[in-house]
Structures are given as C-alpha cells and as structure tokens.
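[User] I wish I could look at a protein chain and see how it folds. I have put the entry right below:
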Amino acid sequence: MPNVWIINKGEHSYESAEAYGDLKEITNGRVNIFQTDNLKAKIATALAEATKEDFLLLSGSIIPNALAIHHMIRANGFVKCLVWMGNQNQYKTVTLK
C-alpha cells in the first residue's frame, strides 16, 4: 500500500486521505519557512523512503509544499499529490511532472 506524506500536519482530520494509503507526517504545526536549509534536510530525510506509488498531501505553507514537490520530481520524474477540494468534501489527485 502506498504512503500519503502529509507535508505539514495541522489540526484538522486527514481521515479521508487514508483511502489513498498509510498516513505519514513530514512536519507538524508551525514551520520556520525562513530556514530553508533545515527544512529541505527534514523533507529529504522523511522522503528518503518514499516510492513512486506514494502521494504528497498538500497542506500548510507553500514553501514546504514546494520543497517536497521538487524533491519527489527530482527523485521520480513526477509526483502524485492529494489536494483537498472543500466544495466537494474530498481529496483529488493531481500528478505533476
């Protein structure tokens, strides 16, 4: 089963994302987006075990999301993302190359 990497876990429920795989968090709560070297290292360490089948769940600040997407595209040539569609109350998959 794939993993769903929550880029920045917040307080809301991610239960519906479990349909896509096992939930794993990369960061949690407030993240210092101005210390990008530390953030890149944390993301790279977490995603070292990620596979092509895994998903990134986009959540939180744009900076960690951009860094995680960049990491996965460099590693695999593409990334599968989960984006919350609030008006539909569900996640939608988006593949970026």
User: Anything to note?
Assistant: The longest helix spans residues 62-76. The helical segments are 36-47, 62-76. The CA atoms of residues 2 and 53 lie 6 Å apart. The chain has two helices and five strands.
